[in-house]
Design brief:
The complex is a heterodimer.
Chain A: E1 9-16, H1 27-42, E2 51-56, H2 63-70, E3 76-81, H3 86-99, E4 106-113, E5 130-131, H4 146-161, H5 165-179, H6 193-197, E6 201-204, E7 207-208, E8 217-226, H7 227-230, E9 238-248, H8 266-277, E10 286-289, H9 294-303, H10 312-317, H11 334-337, H12 344-355, E11 387-395, E12 398-405
Parallel strand pairs in A: 2-3, 2-4, 10-11
Antiparallel strand pairs in A: 1-8, 1-9, 4-8, 6-7, 9-12, 11-12
Chain B: H1 3-7, E1 11-12, H2 19-26, E2 31-35, E3 41-42, E4 57-61, E5 65-74, E6 87-94, E7 99-103, E8 119-128, E9 131-138
Antiparallel strand pairs in B: 2-3, 2-4, 5-6, 5-8, 6-7, 8-9
Classes of the chains: A alpha/beta, B mainly beta.
């Protein structure tokens, strides 16, 4: 069913810190910088923020703490436990909070010292720790991190559809080409298929080192308000056409128990987001597909119906995802090359694409003048972007989607 | 150094839902649950049926036969697994319907050896005097 709220809310501000490996700062300090940048971008003052939403994995900082630093009086805030796919979902919740009359302008943030403090799956529990709960059935077998637990879905997919490491490497190659035109990207170096398949194994047969995202210290922020209010602000408004999620597979806790294992949450989220937006795949000009690992991209393009099941590898190989082609993906370089932000940088990038002022190496990008020369160290603005889509991923079992328009 | 420290890996600490499972594993038997209202067979253990939420559940002994549903070979070992990396963590499709996670023993853990849908059977690894972990090997 078409959403009654489509295009009634906008992203009016975006901001991030530098992407580093060693911020030397607290998540509190990082968050304030990202929020300040987003507020400035929107042409607002810190005190104009009266709603806040954040997500965390036991790291980060509370909204109420930040409100002190911002000199803000909040009418609404929630700090949610959650990882990937939370960005999209919290944009939906921000709309709900404003629609309910609880507040007017919401800052959504994620702050993480993802390299220097809490490394997801990398810090691990100490040895011989007793383990209970659902982990009881996984941890004694040596399962520790996301790249491992997600891989069950993809090994079977690889075997059933004949996907190779080279197929996966092409995802990294595309995103690295995009990152080479992004001054903010942590990894700007363009890589080849050989570079990827010759890097060391992390999880066989699904991921070499270069198939994995970049642990990063950073904070990111997106500001949402009504389209009506957006008209008076500094930037060209970007309209929230539809948002859906976080949705799950049936029985999402141990995703491998249910249905074809390579069927991920996007299979259920996809039809709903297109219905809500009253749009189809052909309307989407740019995608942002959660690339924790190269294989998550392949699984999601299939799940959301951009190609048929088993044809994700061919979708990538066709080149459609490259800058200059029909529907570029992760034009900032995404998690694989720009930075790992738990999803928000890909929504920020699509917002920039829709404004037409992507911060690339074009001399006059600030005024929206782009060369559209996508060679290394050049442009990454896509021509005539009207509609973008984000596909967020928490795990094979959980995902969210977001469609934005100019 | 205690035996647990020497073992070095995470140790299952049964909770009320799973205590019976681990008790039977100690006896080298694999028991799983079935809903007596809707006949749904499931694993891991719970106090309610994940299909119809009924609390009317029975335990029964599984055949210990299954097939290799999927796997991945871990080159970044969890604590205690350093000496075994690269090692496979696998999902077994039980004959009775549910799937369970495991390690594969009895063969070198390589993609060549780990053929999807190959027949497996359960085996029991007494890792400590009071801790047994079910694992699977080629049938």
């Amino acid at each position: 069913m078409e959403s009654a709220l489509k295009d009634k809310y906008s992203i009016v501000g975006i901001g991030e810190t530098d992407y580093t490996r060693g911020s030397g700062r607290s998540t509190r300090a990082l968050a304030i910088e990202a929020i300040r940048n987003a507020v400035t971008d929107a042409g607002l003052k810190m005190q104009d923020i009266d709603g806040m939403l954040s997500y965390h994995g036991g790291d980060s900082v509370n909204s109420s703490t930040l409100a002190y630093d911002m000199g803000a009086q909040l009418n609404f805030y929630m700090d949610c436990s959650g990882g990937g796919s939370s960005t999209e979902a919290l944009i939906g919740l921000a709309i709900g909070a404003i629609e309910a009359g609880m507040c007017e302008t919401v800052a959504i943030f994620r702050s993480m010292n993802g390299y220097s403090q809490v490394r997801i799956g990398g810090t691990g529990s100490r040895a011989s720790t007793p383990v209970s709960g659902p982990g009881l059935m996984t941890r004694p077998y040596g399962l520790a991190s996301a790249v491992q637990s997600f891989a069950f879905s993809f090994t079977r997919h690889m075997m059933e559809y004949g996907v190779t490491s080279e197929d996966l490497a092409r995802v990294k190659v595309a995103h690295s080409n995009h990152a080479s035109n992004n001054p903010k990207a942590l990894m700007k170096q363009r890589v080849t298929v050989d570079d990827v398949v010759n890097s060391r194994w992390i999880v066989r047969p699904c991921a070499h080192l270069l198939d994995c995202c970049l642990e990063t210290d950073n904070a990111t922020c997106i500001i949402v308000t009504s389209a009506e209010r957006a008209k008076d602000l500094k930037q060209q408004p970007v309209y929230i056409r539809a948002v859906q999620g976080r949705g799950t597979k049936p029985g999402g806790d141990f995703h491998y128990q249910h249905g074809p294992i390579s069927r991920v949450a996007g299979h259920y989220v996809g039809p709903r987001i297109f219905d809500l937006a009253d749009l189809s795949h052909d309307d989407i000009d740019v995608t942002g597909c959660y690339d924790a690992f190269t294989y998550t991209v392949v699984l999601q393009f299939e799940a959301y119906g951009f190609c048929k099941e088993g044809e994700g590898k061919d979708y990538i190989k066709s080149g459609i995802v490259n800058l200059g082609d029909k529907r570029p993906n992760n034009t900032s370089g995404g998690h694989l090359c720009e930075a790992y932000t738990h999803g928000m940088n890909m929504v920020i990038e699509n917002t920039r694409q829709l404004r037409g002022i992507v911060d690339d190496y074009c001399p006059d990008w600030q005024n929206g003048n782009h060369t559209y020369d996508y060679s290394e160290g050049g442009c990454r603005q896509v021509r005539n972007v009207n509609t973008t889509m984000n596909m967020g991923w928490a795990s094979p079992a959980t995902g969210s989607a977001l469609i934005l328009r100019r | 150094m205690t035996q647990e420290q020497e073992y070095g890996k995470m140790i299952p600490e049964p909770v009320p839902e799973t205590a019976y499972f681990w008790e039977k594993v100690r006896e080298h038997e694999l028991w799983i649950q079935k809903c007596t209202d809707c006949d749904h067979v499931f694993h891991y253990p719970r106090f309610h049926c994940p299909k119809c939420t009924s609390s009317n559940l029975d335990w029964f002994q599984a055949s210990g036969k299954g097939t290799l549903y999927t796997y991945m070979i871990n080159h970044r070992p969890a604590p205690g697994f350093q000496d075994e990396a690269p090692y496979a963590i696998a999902v077994v499709q039980l004959e009775e319907g549910p799937r369970m996670m495991t390690n594969i023993v009895g063969i070198e853990n390589t993609p060549e050896n780990l053929v999807l849908d190959m027949a497996l059977e359960v085996t029991f690894d007494d890792v400590l005097p009071d801790v047994t972990i079910p694992k699977w090997k080629p049938a």
